Amino acid sequence: MQLKRFLAAALAAAALCAxxxxxxxxxxxxxxxxxxxxxxxxNHATTNGIMQHVYEGLVRYSKKFxxxxxxxxxxxxxxxxxxxxxxxxxxxxxxxxxxxxDDVVFSYGRIMQPQGTMQIYVAGVKEVRKVDDFTVDLxxxxxxxxxxxxxxxxxxxxxxxxxxxxxxxxxxxxxxxDTYASRNTNGTGPYVLKLWExxxxxxxxxxxxxWDKIEGNVxxxxxxxIRSDATRVAALLSGDVDLLTDMPTQDVARMRNDPKLKVxxxxxxxxxxxxxxxxxxxxxxxxxxxxxxxxxxxxxKALNLAVDREAIRRVTMRGLSLPAAIMVAPGVxxxxxxxxxxxxxxxxxxxxxxxEAGYPNGFEFTLDCPxxxxxxxxxxxxxxxxxxxxxxxxVKLLAAPMATFIAKIQNFDHSAYMLGWGVANFDANYTxxxxxxxKSTGAAGSFNLGRINDAKLDAIIAGIxxxxxxRKRDAMLREALTITRDQYYYVPLxxxxxxxxxxxxxxxxxxxxxRPESRFARVD
Length: 524
What we know:
Layout: H1 2-15, E1 25-30, H2 45-54, E2 59-61, E3 67-69, E4 72-79, E5 82-87, H3 101-111, E6 125-132, E7 135-140, H4 147-151, H5 159-164, E8 191-197, E9 201-206, E10 220-225, H6 229-237, E11 243-244, H7 252-256, E12 261-264, E13 267-276, H8 297-305, H9 309-316, E14 321-323, H10 347-356, E15 364-370, H11 377-390, E16 394-400, H12 402-410, E17 416-422, H13 428-436, H14 455-466, H15 470-486, E18 491-497, E19 500-503, E20 506-507, E21 522-523
Helix pairs in contact: 8-10, 13-14, 13-15, 14-15
């Protein structure tokens, strides 16, 4: 009854927005909600997955993750540090206003504002310069081998709409700011966002004025975040939901055997890991005063050695994970099976290292963990607490919904934290530049929340950013991934496998970035 009331309320509220005639509705559920509607605020996969329906970039991905034209119809390299993009004409924002070069220039200035976390998608771009109403030049700080792949998630906003609604500035999410743009949208994309009730539902309807054609037949999307595993599965089994992209591992076999359903298998280019505060002179929430144990490589190695990744794969993840030794997953350029060989758990070795570091009795710290974002996130953290306890570490678990959790860790209010990192451009430097490079006010180190500071790694990453010789660049990627692994700057846990379940009459394209695109979906 509780499930029926929940879904009935969601669908009734969605129906308040007038649906197009003969609407074909895709009812999609997953475990967590978007955290903002501001496309330049938070580099959060679920948020980006919904925003791609509404906002567009100069380029986009095809079904096979090849770069293809979107708001730009073409581009050419005028000089090594200058790329010229020809913009698509006769494109309208959802409010009916025209798209021009001014909107691209404005959006670049906006995404670069330091309170957002999306600068990675314009990394290496010094300036966007208007040539005429439908031509812009991107002025680069140097050659950029992944420029086009980065630009997929550089979403273009309307300059006039942002000014009209006092949204020229990016929302300060970690400062708990709300703006018009964080609650409303105005893109050029294939779907118009009609309703967002946080933690309840999102309704999107097909944009009849879109410049392109929807490849599938879905004209209405109802997205419902359902935190409870049991409720989410029950919604699919009862037919109240068409597509489920967050499948509880314990229910996958049952869904495979249900004649009303089908399961679409695929891996995800996302690595789940633990970060540690390696910056503060004194570790927060610890019984060790006057110093920070995580500054010591022996302690970081001990945390890694105490983790039984195979047990997590077998028990917690029911086989739906790949144990990880490095910070990028298979499918990401730079990944190597040789580098990604996981050492067996060694609790005694961990105890010995802690004793050598001066902590024979271990020490206390907190572990911040989301409880509605990644597959079995809180359960994994609970398992880690038990594994670390065997090595003498006393860990207090602090689990919270993603929206609360992410603001807390972005404010560096933690000892250690779980995070998952998906590689949007399928290149390992996306991870290195965001998670390992010394933190700055821009894209560099934007999610280096443990504040790692390694000058040698910074120099290698800077070289990777501009190296166009593939062999040289691959060698630098390998060196940087190896150093990150061998310095134990993180505790990589596993790379997620990501099956999706759906009704038999639903067809869609599995996406390794875990972002379903409704324009490719059919409901027959």
